[in-house]
Amino acid sequence: MASPLEPGAEKLRELTEACARFVLAQLADLDRQPAADVEGAAEVAASFVEAAPEEGQTLEALLRRLGPAIAKSYNTAGPGYLAFIPGGGLPTSALADFIACAVNRYVAVVQAAPALARIEETAVRWLADLMGYPASATGILTSGGSLSNFSAIVTAREAKLPQDFSRGRIYVTDETHHCVKKAARLAGFPRDAIRVVPVDARRRLVPSALADAVRGDRERGFAPFLVVASVGTTNTGAVDPIEEIREVARAHGLWVHADAAYGGFFRMVPGGERLMPGIDGCDSITLDPHKGLFLPYGIGCLLVRDRKALLHAHRESAGYLQDVEGAAGTESFADLSPELSRDFRGLRLWLPLQLHGLRPFREQLREKLDLARLAYDELRQDPRFEMLDEPQLSVVAFRLRGPAADAEARGAELLRRVNARGRVFLSSTRVDGRYVLRICVLSFRTHEDRVRDAVTALREEARSLSA
Ligand SMILES: Cc1ncc(COP(=O)(O)O)c(C=O)c1O
Fold first, then answer.
1. What is the pTM of this model?
2. What backbone phi and psi angles, to 5 degrees, belong to 268?
3. What stretches in the chain show pLDDT beneath 70?
4. DSSP 8-state secondary structure symbol assigned to residue 288
5. Cα 223 from chain centroid?
6. Cys staple from 193: which of 67, 109, 189, 355, with CB 3.0 to 4.6 Å?
7. Strand-pair partners of 186
């Protein structure tokens, strides 16, 4: 008896084409869709609470239900999404996922699919080249920046601390992404293992303060072992002074990890090395292709200069894997990362980079830096806005001028009104405990018209708020 789990070629073609039509319709009018629309989203969400059906339904019926679920959301794929950290989601990467899932080969151990594993390794190598890493460096693809930072902390811990690592200390700033703290906890460190180093007026770690903190901790019998430099903070896009941080680290034997999840790929633009000098000398780097390379959510990267350190931190062996254990030097991704079975995520990186080449990525990233500068130049001319800093990368952070007492309420109301217009979607944050609005330009679909829409909306709504 034919099973519906094994549809014939014709049926599968029909299903594939229905999905392709659905996706094309979703993407066709992205620029006219609201930048966010969650009105009534709770009802749509509630409609999905149901028991698993005993009998199957048609794909058409299911896609009809999926449409509103997609629509009632922040439009993270659209050009108006300037909140948090955008990316967009290259459709050509989605095609790679389709192929990877459909052929369902196993890439976590080299022996199971040597050429596919080599594709992934090559794509990681390209990212290492973009960061100026030597050929001896290695890396893994993860599900995102949080997991990359987690593996970085474990790798540094294993490289620098004894088995009892309870006295280990990690140095960050208030601007470091919160996933670093979470990762430290998951890696077994108590909360007070995280030391917060002061930042300067541009929200960058102060190296002399790092040196003082490390010395003080050593004197008290702690074991400083890791400093995390942000290469593009989420709040304001600030880039820590990596070279000076490395000098302090060298003097005290610390591992330097660069969290470049948001900012790292800006190194690709012509002259981009000057945006983050010294990143190529860090012990490890987190990158997020689902941010700066515009890939769909679900792909991060950890690069490590010393392959042995990554291997030492992650390798385990087991009898049932003896048939696929390689010789030294031919380690599999499973030996270098926390994961065993997983998707073939290298293809979603490799395919678009091969298909389009690096040039359009460099151009897009250059454009994002220019657009952030444009938004900054426009907003600073308006006396209603106080700019926190010139953009160091593609984040513009600002607040409404006016009495401190209701600054937060007015800022939140401005954000609500701008977002309610539907053309752009912005988000807010806190810097030094104060309410701050921000624009982050990072989607490949965002161009000048949309950034000008954001500026116009901010100016008009700020004027009407103060009227
Ligand atoms: C600087 C930085 N680090 C780490 C992360 C976490 O990355 P992910 O959301 O991919 O886990 C982010 C996310 O925005 C980030 O901006």
1. 0.98
2. -75, -20
3. none
4. -
5. 30
6. 189
7. none
Distance CA 44, CA 19 (A): 21
Per-residue pLDDT tens over the stretch 88-134: 999 999 999 999 999 999 999 999 999 999 999 999 999 999 999 99
Closest to 298 measured CA to CA, from 257, 357, 349: 349
Tokens, residue 258: 């660069």
Residue 360's pLDDT is 98
Longest dimension (CA), the chain: 75
pLDDT at 20: 98
Distance CA 167, CA 262 (A): 30
| SS3 of residue 140 by DSSP | strand
Nearest residue (CA) to ligand 1, atom 16: 234
Phi, psi of 61 (to 5 degrees): -65, -40
Residues having CB closer than 6 A to ligand 1 are 85, 144-146, 177, 179, 230, 234, 259, 261-262, 288, 300
Give 21-28 contacts, CB < 8 A, sequence gap 24+: 22/63, 22/66, 22/67, 23/91, 23/94, 26/67, 26/70, 27/77, 27/91
**Residue in 175, 231, 276, 288 to alter for ligand 1 test, most ligand atoms within 8 A of Cβ:** 288
User: Ligand 1 centre from 153 Cα, in Å?
Assistant: 15
Cα angle at 46 between 44 and 52, to 5 degrees? 110
What is the per-residue burial (b if ≥16 Cβ within 10 Å, else e) of 403-441?
eeeebbebbeebbebbbebebbbbbbbebeeebbbbbbb
Cα 461 to Cα 60, 320, 379, 381, 418, distances in angstroms: 42, 64, 13, 16, 7
